[in-house]
Amino acid sequence: MLTKGGHKAAAGTYWNMENGERIDLEQEGTLPGKASTTYIKAPGALVLVAGPFLGLVFAVFLPFIGIVMFMSFLGGKIIEAMANAAAGVVTFGWRPIEAYLTGRKGKKTDRPRKSNRDTHKR
Question: What is the pTM of this model?
């Protein structure tokens, strides 16, 4: 039923699964294409009957495909947000661009100043 390109095949009608091309072999011969090309042997009437049925299956399952895609998107966004939140907690504050060669600028504390009176007392 399934035949690969480049292999010998019996006479009949073969359908290329990649592009839908129909190949008619009048007698036994070799199917065109690479070994990765897949052909299915089916008469034209079967393909014409299967086409609308496959379209119906696609139309029935299309809403479910949309729901699954939306849930996958939403799940990815939730996981991304959780990873970003976790990364914010785990960081250790190293900033290689900042040098602080003179020390960090911080809050200046008021130290009591010596007054002139304190220095003159003995």
Answer: 0.45
